[in-house]
Amino acid sequence: MPQPTLQSLIAGRWIGSEAAAPLHSALTSAVIYHTHADKIDFDEAVTYARKTGIPALMQLNFQQRAARLKALALYLLERKEELYAISHQTGATRSDSWVDIEGGTGTLFAYASMGSRELPSSNVLHEGPAIALGKNGGFAGTHILVPRGGLAVHINAFNFPIWGLLEKFAPSFLAAMPCIGKPATATSYLTEAVVRMMHESGLLPEGALQLVIGSTGDLLDRLNGADVVTFTGSADTAAKLRVNRNLIANSVPFTAEADSLNCAILAPDVTPDDAEFDLFVKEVAREMTGKAGQKCTAIRRIIVPENMVDAVGMRLRERLAKVSVGDPSVEGVRMGALASRDQQRDVAERVELLARGNEVLFSARDGFKPVGDGVADGAFFAPTLLLCRDGMRNDAVHDVEAFGPVSTIISYNGIDEALALAARGKGSLVSTLVTKEPAIAAYAVPMAAASHGRVLVLDKEASVDSTGHGSPLPQLKHGGPGRAGGGEELGGIRAVRHFLQRAAVQGSPTMLAAVTGEYVRGAKVQEHDVHPFRKYFEDLAVGDSLLTHRRTVSEADIVNFGGVSGDYFYMHFDEVAAKDTQFGQRIAHGYFVLSAAAGLFVSPAPGPVLANYGLDNLRFVAPVAIGDTIRARLTCKRKVDRNRTDDKGVGQGVVAWDVQVTNQRDELVASYDILTLVMKRA
Length: 682
Description:
33% of the residues lie in helices and 25% in strands. The chain is an alpha/beta fold. It is globular.
């Protein structure tokens, strides 16, 4: 019976009817799919992304695209079991697949949440504040981030066919960049399955996502300076792609996340009797066997004090001996197969290189026998532990990566030598330092950070919630210097900014306010008879403003506020001591000034303003003394429509208000933004 032929999604239609290269099950080596032989017209793909994808995405704003991401994550999560069934053929255990499948949908959820909190309901992201560029207040400058007007080509590795696509798709989608995803061929059948779901959901604007099964052909030759390329895979392949003549000629941004020789350091303060010692061994064993070691973040170098080598080796051998390898559907199996027989051969060749001049502490000779029906021809590889007693002279342990369940213990003398050994990896994605002593962490982390993209400091306290050495998180940067590619992925909204174009804008504050969609101090305001707090979200306009009546601060105000707050700081109550300060007199509490300003601008009756949920950028600029008279200007600074309703179905939006508190000399004494939930009329 012929096996299914995978298809590419190009220009809104599925292409691929003629079978080409066979794809094999990692568990049995049986043919399960074929790639397609149909030639892809990459000119059509690029043109479709530009002429259809970009306009469709630009019809939505940041907030609306964030809402689509959330809906898409929910859609995929409802169908996850279909993906788990397919993922099984990659050799992954259920927990391995969880990282790929639910880790991928979790990344969509994370970016949807961050986008709804941090991005505007427009397509212009203001990087303020504006900076005055003249003495008279009529000329200012600021920065904005806008969609690039290009497309993103995402080239991914075989080890995470779903997460690898979605962790790049999410931020580029938020940035209004249509994507062309190219998965590694060996496991492309799983990527094709999730893209089919995404396409069938109807949630993606037309042209937002295309899929390439097989070679990228001349795709990179058709890109221009508005486009971006991201790559995950081997450092060798990254180096070849990076020097594509067209990418260089058109200054096309190219970011790489490459395999690296990550390390874990056991600090010299930890002994076998400490909980941290067990944490170290457990973390190393988990990183060796999780996804059968096929993780760009896996621990390849285990750097331990010379006097701890035997203890660490013994504990690791004991743990590895308990790991059952085979078909993940068999109960008790904790480690599956490598992705392919080609990968199996590659890992074997690299282990042979690593073994030269080093000791093999644990390998296939220690009773390796995969379990399950038909696994004899599967791409299984035994957990392999080596020992290098002279890491400063052995180059192979710092240069050769076996992309499988393989790691090498390297001994050191003193923390400085440990850090030097870590740096020999020439740039890594992640390192872990296990220590009990904060002083060791304070000394070691700044030096380790120079050559690692992420540093995990693991102790007993952190272990309660730690996500582990090998878990990139959407909120934190994923990437590393040097051999690791020099790129950055994830990292919260920072990742979205990577796909946007930054520009400096100069002009009058009024013009800058119009461009950014935010009130810029010095811009023209609109004052009306209706108090801004009496307006529904739809009726408010950026620049709507209220200048309050005045209030003179008395000694009784200070005394009463101190009694209510319990704040009897000498600057407010000790006239003799206050005279010796830079202010020369008693002054009001800063938080009294804040509270008094609220009393001046708040409209007390029930109305559209539902809640105040925070302050940003609070500064007490100048002191307020007894007898000073203050007033406030409240201005609608920014509106964000989150497209949400409350439990009663009432729509809400978020409004940020600029507040400036001045004294009788019109001097600024306090400055801040207040954030409110405001009801919609509709």
